[in-house]
Amino acid sequence: MDQSLFTEVQAWIRDDPDPHTSAELQSLLDSGDETSLKKYFNGFLQFGTAGLRGPIGPGPSCMNRAVVGRTAAGIVTYMRKRGMTKVVIGRDARYGSEDYTFETAEIMSGAGMDVYILPRPLPTPVLAFAISYAQCDIGIMVTASHNPPQDNGYKVYVGPTADGINYASSQIISPTDGFMAADIDAVKSLKAQPRGKNWTALGEEVITEYVKRTSALAPRPGDIKIVYTAMHGVGTETVQRVFNHAGFATLLLVDEQCTPDPDFPTVAFPNPEEPGAIDLALKKARDFGADLVIANDPDADRCAVAINDPQVGWRMLRGDELGIVFGEWIARSKPTGTFGNSIVSSSALRKICGHYGITFEEVLTGFKWLAKIENLSFGYEEAIGYAVDSENVNDKDGISAAIFIAQIAMDLKREGLTISDLLDEVWARHGFHGTEQISIRVSDISAITRLLAGLRQNPPAEIAGRAVESIDDLAAPTNGLPPTDGLRIWLAGGIRVIVRPSGTEAKMKCYIEVVTSTSEESQKLLDQIRQPLKELLS
To answer: Is residue 503 over pLDDT 80?
Structure first.
C-alpha cells in the first residue's frame, strides 16, 4: 500500500471520535483494501452548496462525525473572527442526523458558543425561521434534503449580516463559504478541540410561532379535499398543525409515506419530481375524489402539487407552472416588493411582472441567491422551491407553499374555477411556456467537467436541425451575475437550453424552454429536441 495513504489513514483513525467509522477504516487497512481507502481519502468533503453534502461513510471524503466535527470547529473559528456567539441547530430524520447534531453541539459548546437545538427532527423551514426567532448568528440544518438514502448533509445559514452581505438569515454564498472552508481546512485535529454539554433545547414555542405565522397565509379556509405526502420525511406533523390552525379540513395522508423513514422504502429517490415518487398520492386522490395533491420532499423545504387536469387527468405541475401560479396570484393581490427566479426557471414570471409593473430580478441557480434579493415579495426556482413568505422564512419553504396553494385552490373553487383555468389565463396573455428538465446521472463528476469543456471548445452548430444562434458562457457572464459553471444556448425559434452540473448530486442537468401559442405546439417542439439533446449530453 502507498505509504503516504497508510500514514494518512492511521492519523485519521487516531483522531476519529466515532468507534464505528474508525473500526471500518482499520479493517480496510488490515485487509490492504487500497481501492476503498482511496475512495474514502479523496480529499476533504467539499464545503459548498451552502454547506456539506455527500454519502455517509468513513474518512474525510464522506459524511461522518469526524468530518462534521472538524466542520463545526472551522465554523467556530469563523464565528470568533466576527464576534459571533449564537448558533441554532436543526436536523431531519436521516441516518446520522442526530449524531451529527450533537457532534456539532459538543464542539461549539466546548468553544464557548451559545448553542440552541431544535427539540426533535423537524423541517428545514422551521430551522430557517428559528435563526431569526432566537436571534442567532449562525443556523445549521443537518439534512440531505431530497438526496438518496445513503447521503446526508449540513446546510449553513448566516443571519442577519456577515462579510458585507445582508444575509437576513439565509444560506451562505461567496465569499462566506470560502472563508468557512479555509477555517475548516485549518483544523488539523478534532481531538484537540474542547467539548462541552452546555446547550439549550428550544421548546415548542418556536414551532408554535412558526405554525401561527405560516397558517396566516390562508385566512379563508374551506372544504377543499387535499391528499398529502411527506415522502418519508419530517413534514407531516408540522404541515398538519399548519392546516389545522388555518381551519382547513383534515388532510388525507399517504399512510405509506407519512412517517419519517431514512430508508425511503416506497421511492427510488425521495424527490417528488422523480418519476413514480407521487404515484401513491395520485392513487389516493383518485380513490377519494380529491381536489389537490401536495407533496413535500423529506426536509419539507420543497413543495410539489398535482392537479386533476381536464385534458389529461391527474398530473403533477411542473415546478415552473406552480411558480407561475404563485407569481400571478401574488401579483394580483400584493403588487409590492421584488419578484425573482433563477436563470434556469421559466421566463414567464418576468412577463407577469412586466404586466403588473412589478420589479423583477433574475439570479443564479439556488435559493441562497434568491434569498439575497432586497425586499423579496416572491421568489422561486423550477426545482419546486418557493418563497411565498420571505418575511418569516428567507428561504424556500415547502410548508408555506403548501398552505398557500391550498388557499389559492379554495379561492378558485369558490369562483367555479381551477388552477388549470388560472394557468390558461396566463398562457393566453403571454404565450404557452413549455419547460422540461433532462437529468443525466453520472458516476464520475469529472465527466460533467469534460463535457462542458468540450461544448465550449467545439460548440454545436445545430441541435435537432435548429441552428444554434448564440451561446452564453455562464462562467464568464456579461449581465452582472456572478460566474457559474454552465452554458445557455439559444436555438432558432427562441428556444432556450441551459446546461449545468447539479449543485447537490452527481448529475448533468439540462433545462429547456419553448414559447408557443398552444400546449400542443410546445409539446411537439420539446419532443423534437429532447432526444438530440440527450445524445449531445451523453
So the answer is: no
